[in-house]
Write a structure and sequence with these properties.
By secondary structure, the protein is mainly α. Helix content is 73%, strand content 4%. Strand 1 and strand 2 form a beta hairpin. The longest helix has 28 residues. The protein is globular.
Length: 206
Amino acid sequence: MAPTPDQPERRDVPGWLRTALELGPVALFFLAYISTRGQTYTLGGTEYSAFILVTAGFIPLIIVATIVLWRLTGHLSVMQIVTAVLVTIFGGLTVWLNDERFLKMKPTLIYSLFAAILGFGLLRGRSYLSMVLASALPLTDEGWMILTKRMAIFFVALAMTNEVVWRTLSTDAWVNFRTFGLPVLFFAFLMSQAGLLKRHSTEEES
């Protein structure tokens, strides 16, 4: 069915390009930070840490990458949109108020928001996760409910972990956790759900 004027056509892009646009800004943030950490800069009479100035460059980078991804694919996921918006808001507050805490709180808010959305759907007896991933993961209704519950709990755990890391450890530790720790945790969670996906798959075996 052809897309309507209100529903832009989705276009495929090479996997490496999508990955570069999604993860590139975070990788560049990490590289810029480790090459300038420990340094301070005075601009307009105000002293800024390297973290603050790297954050100032990260905001337009994530916005540009998100726009390019949308122009290339004709589609953005909810998480991509929310991430770009919260990076702009909390990154902007970090730079404006010269306070690192705002950007560090951003993952907590993202994961708490998604946990709340999934939890609200579960209370209504619905899996909002299936509305996003049904075309990619053919699961039974029971499978979707189980996966949604686990995902909601996982998001809560991520939010709590981020809070503990940024509040108790150094900025270096938080940057490493944000760059490497969170992707590893996501990958481990997805791998741990292989049994569930297999048991509740509705895809016919060849």
